[in-house]
Specification:
The protein is of the alpha+beta class. The protein is built from ten helices and nine strands. InterPro entries: IS701-like, IS701-like_DDE_dom, RNaseH-like_sf.
């Protein structure tokens, strides 16, 4: 978006940002938040604070840096306000809630969660951050609804690195399906209307995610790996024997464990798992 396009959009953008600005607290933080959004819309391949300030005709670089690095506001409150704006326009009881992850290329090692890992936009493994996003889709349109930054295990276990990067103590390692399920549960708790949950094989291959979606009372359409193992019938749970001589074979088996040899069926081609709630 060039300067003229941004100026033409500014009245409408200001009205939109009016709903979010108070959530940033102090007046100067509200001003910086507006500048930051406008700088992002201005475009450019690199989105550093210096470049954003330059795009906004020489904005205050140091104060913008302080706003991003040490400014205090509640991202939860901002996301809740965003969801309210989305539902005013797109709400539909038959909508779909979709999970997907994406990567953000990075040059250094200081950004939270950065490491060499697969990045969808790059199509390869490279130095990047990865986040899981929730997308809301109805017949009226679609947009992002929520997000969670993925924190790799080595980051979660490195206390010194966490402290230096400012990772809150309560943030622990969670898999991408676990992050997605937490966002879906939050959406349900807030009363976001949707019937369907969608995702690729990262989520379709996760029993935790699939069972969690069913417990939320939602239907799902998920990709599944070609070699995914499934039960062809209801597995028999054998109660454990009591008393001396109890054998391992007598223990109850989880439907998601390998169970007896031959109890699994291997798919010979890619498929989509479809399952109705209830």
């Amino acid at each position: 978006m060039d300067e003229q396009q941004l100026l033409a959009l500014k009245p409408e953008l200001d009205r939109f940002l009016d709903r979010f600005a108070p959530l940033f607290g102090r007046d100067e933080n509200q001003v910086h938040a507006r500048r930051f959004v406008q700088g992002l819309l201005h475009g450019g391949e690199r989105r550093s604070i210096e470049n954003l300030a330059q795009a906004m005709s020489g904005g205050p670089v140091r104060s913008l840096q302080a706003f991003i690095s040490t400014g205090v506001w509640s991202d939860g409150a901002i996301l809740k306000q965003l969801r309210g704006c989305v539902l005013e326009v797109l709400a539909d009881d038959d909508a779909a809630w979709n999970a997907d992850e994406t990567g953000f290329p990075k040059k250094g090692t200081k950004s939270v969660g950065v490491k060499r890992q697969y990045s969808g936009p790059l199509g390869r493994t490279d130095n990047c951050q990865v986040a899981v996003f929730a997308d809301y889709c109805s017949v009226k349109g679609h947009t992002s609804l929520d997000r969670r930054l993925f924190l790799p295990e080595e980051w979660a276990a490195d206390g010194e690195r966490r402290e230096e990067a400012g990772v809150p103590a309560g943030v622990i390692f969670r898999t991408k399906p676990e992050l997605a399920l937490a966002m879906a549960a939050d959406a349900v708790a807030e009363g976001v209307p949707f019937r369907w949950v969608g995702g690729d094989g990262v989520y379709g291959d996760s029993p935790t995610f699939v069972q969690g979606v069913r417990q939320l009372g939602k239907r799902y359409v998920l990709d599944s790996s070609a070699d995914a193992r499934v039960w062809t019938g209801e597995p028999q749970v054998i109660p454990p024997r009591s008393g001396p001589g109890r054998s391992v074979a007598g223990r109850a088996r989880s439907p998601w464990s390998s169970g007896r040899p031959g109890a699994w069926t291997r798919w010979s081609r890619p498929c989509r798992r479809r399952r109705g709630a209830g």
